[in-house]
Amino acid sequence: MPSKCDRSKFRMILDVGHTTESPGAASSRNVDEFEFNLRLAKRIQEKLKADGFSETTVLVTPGKARPSLMKRVAAANKANPDLFLSIHHDSVPDGFLEDWEFDGKPRHFSDKFSGYSVFVSERNPQFKVSLMFARMLGNQMAARDQQFARQYDQLFMGKYQRQLLDLEAGVYRYDELIVLRRTLMPAVLLEAGSIINRDEELVMASPEYRDLVSAAVSSAVTEFCDARTPAQPRVAQPQLPVSPRSARKR
Q1: Phi then psi for 148, rounded to 5 degrees?
Q2: DSSP code of 240?
Q3: What is the pTM of this model?
Q4: Cβ 127 vs Cβ 186: under 8 Å
Q5: Do 121 and 78 contact (CB within 8 A), yes or no?
Q6: I need a surface site. Which of 134, 135, 186, 247 has the fewest CB within 10 A?
């Protein structure tokens, strides 16, 4: 059966989480999360373009954390893509960090948790469509023998606890993420793995893992492009106040 998807016309934004000025989490070997995010986003773009999704762009936003969040949402809404995927790499709350020494310098790590996770916001105006893609992406990761991060729905996570929406795909609900709740198109955030985990950081840094994630994203985008219903008219969302806590996170 021929595909319903015209890949050459499907417009996708790959949002590089964080900025050079506000680089996000530090890995167990003190590499900025932003570097991991940028490398992975560029590799995903290469894969998508090779698979026919020529209108895939990488969004790199300058500035400090809170202003950059507003800039990236404004840029995404202006571009009006079919899909928005924000690329991140995970860490843990400070209370889980342990000390170690790497390269002769004191560092922090946590080997307790590992795995990818996928986040959506119910406050996104296209939540159901966002959830559809999130499940597709999580299932593609799972099909490549990847385990999702199980800690987020546990009570010990306290204020970082999230509702698990899909046990098979590893999809969580996180309504406060600005890049998910203020974008007008279907929007999903991927934490590709934990860079504060010493073993997983080495995996995250490898070209082989970037290839694996890129293949998973491309397969999910292909499935989404084939399955999606015609886009609904997009209406502007009310400008809600931004809490300092959510701004610090993303």
Answers
A1: -90, 160
A2: P
A3: 0.90
A4: no
A5: no
A6: 247
